[in-house]
Each structure stands twice: as C-alpha cells, then as structure tokens.
Specification:
Strand 1 and strand 2 form a beta hairpin. 7% of the residues are buried. By secondary structure, this protein is of the alpha+beta class.
C-alpha cells in the first residue's frame, strides 16, 4: 500500500541523488500492479563508478526508502550484454 509513496520518494529524493553521482547514466524502475516487488536498475558508465556508488552512497539511498521498503534490497552488479538504447541522456544541473 506504499507504492505511491515509494514512487514519490524515488522521483523526488533518490533520482536527484543519483544524478549527482559520477558516471550515472539513467534509472529504470519496474513494478507490477498488485505486487510488492520492485526492480530498480541503475545504469553507469563504468563498473568502477557503480561500485563507488554502492560503497559510498547506496546506504544513504536505503535510508530514504526505509518507510516504503520491507527488508533489505539486494544489490547486484551486472554487465550489459545487449541494449536497444542508442543513447541515454540525463539532465544534470549546471554548477554556477
């Protein structure tokens, strides 16, 4: 019953954090209506940057989700074998 809150938290709190991470290329989040399971896939330019996020920022993201996630999400790193995405664009704030 927290799907709407999860979605709002992801959009308003987590995506801005991800956008600030070096090498972050995009996020795809999947959910099935009526299911409590969600699959979130982050795309990174290198494995090194993905691992840096996992070791330094991921725990902060988990804290943002504490009210809408049951248990501890499982974090895995994989390689892209095939993609039909030609380019993934991310709007990044410009520092003044």
């Amino acid at each position: 019953n927290t799907f709407a809150e999860f979605s709002r938290t992801f959009e308003k709190e987590i995506i801005p954090v991800l956008n600030k991470q070096q090498g972050f290329k995009g996020e795809i989040t999947f959910a099935t209506s009526g299911s409590k399971d969600v699959l979130a896939t982050s795309l990174w330019d290198t494995q090194k940057n993905a691992e840096l996020y996992a070791s330094k920022t991921y725990n902060d993201v988990l804290k943002m989700l504490v009210n809408v996630v049951e248990g501890t999400p499982k974090l895995e790193t994989t390689e892209v074998l095939h993609s039909t995405f030609n380019e993934i664009s991310v709007a990044r704030p410009v520092a003044a």
